[in-house]
Amino acid sequence: MSPKAAALVLVLLAVAGAQADINPDEVASVLWKYFTELGSHAKETVDQLHQTELTKQLNTLLESNLQSVNSYAEDLQRRLVPFATELQARLAQDSQRLKEQIRRELAELQAKLAPYADEVHQQIGTNIRQLQAKMSPYAEELRSQVDRGAGELRRALEPYATELRDRLQDNAESVQASLSPYADRLQQQIDGGVESLKQRLAPLSEELKAQVGQSVEELRRGLSPYAQNVQDGLNRQLESLTVQMEQAAEELRSRLAASSEELRAQLSAVAQELRQAASSDAEGLQQRLAPLAQQLDARVGQTLEAFRQQAAPFGETFGQRLVERLEAMRGKLDSGTAGVEDHLELLEKEVREKVAAFLSTAPPAQN
Q1: Integer Rg of the chain from CA
Q2: What residues contact residue 264 under an 8 Å CB cut-off, 6+ apart?
Q3: What's the pTM?
């Protein structure tokens, strides 16, 4: 196996590990991050794979990883070698080709749209206002769901504070014996509440993603009459815009999920403190638990309020990012110049599609 192929295979195996159920989007994300973290654009990142020390480290990691993978992952690894090598070569070639193509198409598009500059500005301005109008209810709904979910979880946890205070009236041995089951029930309530909260929030990010597609399609219809004979250039710019907006929607989903898991970890710390107390000496246990029992309500409330303050504005932030993307598109159509992010975004989209297509041909997992 060549060092370059080994480097790419390592990234994929790091995601797959010993798991047969592989998420193509996760694989593509790690693969793309691997390339982009090595340099400012795709060809530079690939060239840097020739560095001796880097490839040596990657080979060491690869050998370590292969010791633990199952037969399915090993078979997948063998099939990944030629795929990874081809993808690496294509990425280097396509980077420069796509960059030049976007530059040329955008210059042609700008020249074609120049006589209609006022109409184009007005059309994009209309699209921005329509998008803001559509995003506002979603932002309010997200804020409402965050508030409602946090409130429900707090109410579900309130009885546990009362129960803990009541338990302190029992003798030390009884308190210690009942503490672990109590902590387990508390943890189950926390887990159930957080999962319920995540289920509340997940559909909103999907609905926002659908609205993104609709908004871009409306912009396409509005600009197409002014872009006769340069539809490919317009489509390319709108494709790039779609990628940017979908990335913003995915980031919103990830931020909500991460905030929910952070909430789980912070609340779970209380249950962990109770488990630790249960394993300690019974002497003085009630005295040590008394402050926690008195503070449990407040700690839960503060944690949930911090979550609410953090997550509730995510919808507004998402809407602002979409507007910024549209404003940037208007600036590109005015100037006829594109940034390096344009071709990178489209390359990333291609990588994701190729990884998904490749993994869809992988053999089913063997139990």
Answers
A1: 27
A2: 190, 191, 194
A3: 0.73
